[in-house]
Amino acid sequence: MKRQKRDRLERAHSQGFKAGVAGRSKELCPYQNQEIRCQWLGGWRDAQEARSVGLYR
After folding, report:
1. Which residues 6+ apart lie within 8 Å of 35 measured at CB?
2. pLDDT tens per residue, range 2-57
3. Cα(39)–Cα(31) distance, rounded to whole angstroms?
4. How far is CA 44 from CA 2, 37, 39, 55, in A?
């Protein structure tokens, strides 16, 4: 995979994680592209899991 593509996916995951930690809804995902959207939602889910075990409030 190209570095440029990987960076975009990593950035989407990171932004999704930040949104999840902040308590934002997954419906607010800004991406339409399926691949990038999946990465964003994956980050969001990771944040929700982290919040459920008490790592974030």
Report:
1. 9
2. 667 779 999 999 999 999 999 999 999 999 999 999 999 999 999 999 988 887 76
3. 10
4. 24, 10, 9, 14
Sign of the dihedral through C-alpha 24, 28, 30, 31 = positive
Global pTM reads 0.85
Cα torsion for 50, 30, 36, 56, to the nearest 10°? -10
- Tell me the angle at which helices 3-21 and 34-52 cross, rounded to the nearest 10 degrees: 40
Give the side-chain half-sphere CA count within 13 A for 7.
3
Tokens of 56: 């974030």
